[in-house]
UniProtKB/TrEMBL annotation:
Domain of life where this protein originates: Bacteria
Protein name, per record: ATP/GTP-binding protein
Family membership noted in the UniProt record: Belongs to the GPN-loop GTPase family.
InterPro entries registered for this protein in UniProt: Gliding_Motility_GTPase, Gpn, P-loop_NTPase
Keywords: GTP-binding, Hydrolase, Nucleotide-binding
CDD domains referenced in this protein's UniProt entry, alphabetically: Ras_like_GTPase
Length: 196
């Protein structure tokens, strides 16, 4: 993919990564923390119309929600640019995931240990489409109330799916989540393929 106005001899490869998870797990926060540019957000205030539709149990202080997507960018080098697409978390917007997943190299599923059940839809979505992913437990307020093994068991994760803890507000920790995904993708790519 070349950039407008750039030297035609130089082209940058674009990599698309999805940041997914349930409503209120920190997707917008993670994209904002790691993006080198001001991220595009489609945040709207929660209104009375969402009462009874959006489950705010455990996230009572949440006042906004992503209604389309979040978008951020990380330039790795002159040859490589990573585009981050944060998915909307509410079930009524899940239809967008089918479009957002096209061309994605991999995904990060953010999880909240206070509400692990909101992670199941994202995990099922990527498993059913064969999209490699990692799970990152967003430790709200630095609370680590479950071990990685407890989370892995509760989410019934395949042993090959990487699982890490993070604080989605911290750039360095978000970067480490993305590096975990890249390492996972590279390991899958270099793994010997079964004979047919």
């Amino acid at each position: 993919m070349g950039f407008a106005g750039s030297d035609p001899a130089q082209t940058a490869q674009a990599v698309k990564i999805l940041i997914a998870g349930g409503f209120g797990v920190g997707k917008t926060t993670l994209v904002g923390a790691v993006s080198e540019v001001a991220p595009l957000h489609t945040e709207e205030y929660l209104t009375r119309a969402s009462v009874g539709v959006d489950d705010l149990v455990g996230i009572d202080a949440k006042t906004t929600t992503t209604v389309a997507l979040d978008f951020g960018r990380i330039t790795i080098s002159d040859d490589l640019v990573v585009y981050l697409f944060g998915t909307p978390g509410q079930e009524r917007f899940w239809f967008m995931w089918n479009d957002l997943v096209h061309g994605a190299l991999g995904a990060v599923v953010l999880a909240d240990t206070r509400r692990l059940e909101v992670s199941f839809a994202s995990i099922d979505f990527f498993e059913s489409r064969g999209v490699p992913f990692v799970v990152a437990v967003n430790c709200f307020h630095n609370v680590r109330d479950r071990t990685l093994q407890e989370v892995r068991s509760a989410l019934d994760l395949d042993p090959q799916v990487p699982l890490v803890m993070c604080d989605a507000r911290e750039r360095a920790e978000g970067r480490n989540v993305l590096l975990t995904l890249i390492e996972h993708l590279m390991a899958r790519h270099s793994a010997p393929r079964p004979a047919v």
